[in-house]
Structures are given as C-alpha cells and as structure tokens.
Amino acid sequence: MENRAAAALTAHAFQTCFRIVQITAEPDRATLVNRAEIPLASPDATPAADVLFVFRGGREELAPSIIGGLAPDEFLYGFPEVRAAFPGTAFIEADRRGILVRRLFAPFEKLTVRLGFGLFYSTIFLNRRVVAQARVIVATTDGLGVPFLILKRLGLLRAEVVMVSQGLHSIEAERAHLPWVGWLHGALGRCIERAAALIALGEGDAVAIRRSFAGHRRPEIVTIQFGIDHAFWQPAESAADSDSGYVLSVGSDQLRDYPTLISAIGTVPLRLVTRLSLPAEAARPTIQVLSKLEWPELRALYQQARFVVTPVRDQPRDSGHSATLQAMACGKAVIFSDTEGLWDRENMRHGETCWLVKPGDPAAMREAISHLWAHPEVAERIGRNARQVVIEKYSSAGFGTRLAEVVRGAMKRGLCEERT
Q1: Residue 374: which residues within 8 A CB-CB, separation 6 or more?
Q2: Which of 36, 118, 227, 270 ranks highest by number of CB atoms within 10 Å?
Q3: What is the pLDDT of residues 362-406, one digit of tens each?
C-alpha cells in the first residue's frame, strides 16, 4: 500500500499537475511543459511558481523513467511531496539550452571553479523571469544556491532561499593552499546569512557547517537524512547464491577510497561501478569495472551481490549515502568507512544495520570483507535489518515531507518580511 501511494504521488506530480518551467536560448519566450501537452507561452502568461526547485540537470529526461517505474525518485530531492503541499511548485535546471548565454558566462563560471566550486549564474540568467516571480527557491547544491544568496545579499532577489548544502563547509580545508581561501570563506559566511535555511543531509555535515561558520550569523540549519526510493530499490525475489557471487562497490564521488578497497579485496570477486580513475592494481581478472548502467541494471547488481562495500576517505562531509542506502534497501549488508562525516550514528549501527571499518585501513577492510564472505548468514541478517531501517528512517517520501515543512517556514518568513 505504501509503495503504491508513493508511486501515485510521484506520477501525479509529474503527469497531471506538474510544470517544468524553463527559459530557452531566446530569453523573451518561456516553455511551459506539461506531461499531457507542451504549449509555448510568453513570460506574461507563465503562471508564477510559488516554490522553485533548481537542479543541475537531467531531471526532465528522468521523469518518464520514474513514472514508468524504471528509475528511482530520490534525486528529485523531495519535489513530489513539496509539489503536493504547494501546488504552485515548478523546477528549472542547468541544461544544454541557451548555448550563447552559457558561453558568455563560461569564463566567470570557470573562475569560480578555481576559487573553490562552480557557480551556475547562466542558469539564473536564462530563467530570470521565473526566478523573479518565485517566493521560495530550493537550491539542491551549493553551486546552485550560493549565486541566489549573493543576489539576496545585494537586494536583487525577493525570494527566500532554502539550500541543500553538500560540502560548503569543506572549502576552507580543501582549498587551504590557495592564497584567497580566507577571503572566500568569509564571503561565503556573509552570503549564507541570507538563507532562510540550510539543509544538511546528515549529522556530520550539520556539525561541520556550525563549526566552520561559527563566526557568522547562521541561518536555521536543518538536518534531513537523505532518503531513497525503497519502492524501486527492493530485494530480489530469490536470494543471491551464497556459494558464488561477488562484492559490489558503487560511486563516483571524489571522496571514494577505491585504493583502500582494491588493496583489501584480495582474490574475492569485485564489481566496481564508477567513472573515477582507478589504480593500476585494479587491472586483474577478479575485478570488473562497469559504468553507464541503466537504473534497473544497477538494481540487479545490488540484488545479486553477496554484500556491498562503500569505501570513503575520512572527511567531515557526508559521502556515499546514496549508494549505501540503495544497497541497504535491496537487503544488502554494507561495509562502510566509519568517517567523521557519517550521517547518522544512531541508526547506522555496526554489526546490526551495517559493518563499520576504520577509514583508509586496508587491513581492517580486508578483515571485514573476509568475515562477511565467510559468514553469509551474518550478511543476510544485517541486510534484513538494513532494509527495515531504510523504510523507517531513510525514505525519499520522508525526506520530501520534512523539506515541505522547511519550505512552509521559509514562506512564512517571506510574508513577515513583506509586511515589515
């Protein structure tokens, strides 16, 4: 029943009352996309979006697959639930349109990459009329959110900004070699003061944000555990063969520690799904490297694996949670690096819902892999517990419901400021 309700909500958001609002390369015309029809409207005829999500790209193409049950909905970051709470919700995204405009902004955006992270000003410019009408903007990355906060600080944006922060606090440490990092960190601190709320995807990030920007007047920092679509990520109908199989590792995050995993894996069969460059030691018959999989193909890999390993370098940033939670939802035990940024120590319990190892320690990783490989009953028990905790604590629907509460608070804040 729960799965059918979640699927119905997502389909409703995309098919019947969902609008994708985008400005094309010709800035005086707006495309208003409805799944039933695609009329072309002028900006004056475009309905204002009360809540405007901003994505890096790819969500428009992903929508049909989600509706058809061929892709999970977690990378919508709660859009369906917020859309259900606020019918005037739409999204824009950084896409391939507006080539001339993107070329114009490219030198500046490349400069911001050198400063520490990329800022997507071309997306704002191409969608400026829609942005100007919004009451609340939900930016799903720091690079998308900080430009709005700069505009807010300059008095050029009326909307309240809710930003999902995914590593903003790590700029100072990661760019310590740059002479301007102190100035950059201070400028970022002054900008985030203008946010209605910062969303941290785990406890590690929330603590790091508070510590990093302790000298600034911080906005509300809300921890909302990242959630995944457990209706899509499900265990296989038949259990994986405990006498054969493979260990699986998934992810292309720059914090992935594949050298440690490859040093630890020994002769155990390993399948790696990544776009990252791997050390030369990965070129061996027992290691298979894959990429560019369709969502159902990735799900099948999870389902048939004996267990999953998510090796992460020790940082205060939350990392590896999407692949880890996907595997857990498929009923798999996950060996995970016990980093400073672990998102939820209350529910990620060693030996119960996961298997934690010291980060960057090949010997500890090797011992964990050997233990679960030799004791499939332990892996199966942890996998059952893991799926249950995902359903209870880490669902994409739960993420969206909590985000809708934050958006409601931001909207009330905007109304109060308008009255004053």
Answers
A1: none
A2: 227
A3: 999 999 999 999 999 999 999 999 999 999 999 999 999 999 999
Do the Cβ atoms of 288 and 272 come closer than 8 Å?
A: yes
Q: Rounded to 5 degrees, what are φ and ψ at 40?
A: -105, 130
DSSP structural state of residue 387: H
* CA–CA separation, 298 and 259 (whole Å): 22
Q: Report DSSP letters for 1-45, one per residue.
A: -HHHHHHHHHHHHHHTS-EEEEE-SSTT-EEEE-SS---EE-GGG
Nearest in space to 364 (alpha carbons), one of 333, 337, 341, 344: 337
| Residue 266 three-state SS | coil
Q: Tell me: pLDDT of 412 over 50.
A: yes
Identity (one letter) of the amino acid at 106? A
Tokens 């001339």 found at: 100
CB 241 within 8 A of CB 215: no
Are 145 and 192 spatial neighbours (Cβ–Cβ below 8 Å)?
Answer: no
Per-residue pLDDT at 232: 97
Strands annotated E in 224-333: 247-250, 270-273, 287-290, 307-310
**Mean of pLDDT over the chain:** 81
Higher-pLDDT residue of 78 and 207 is 78
DSSP 8-class letter at 247:
E
**Diameter of the chain measured on Cα atoms:** 69
The model's confidence at residue 213, banded by pLDDT at 50, 70 and 90, is confident
Angle at 211 between CA 208 and CA 212, to 5 degrees: 80
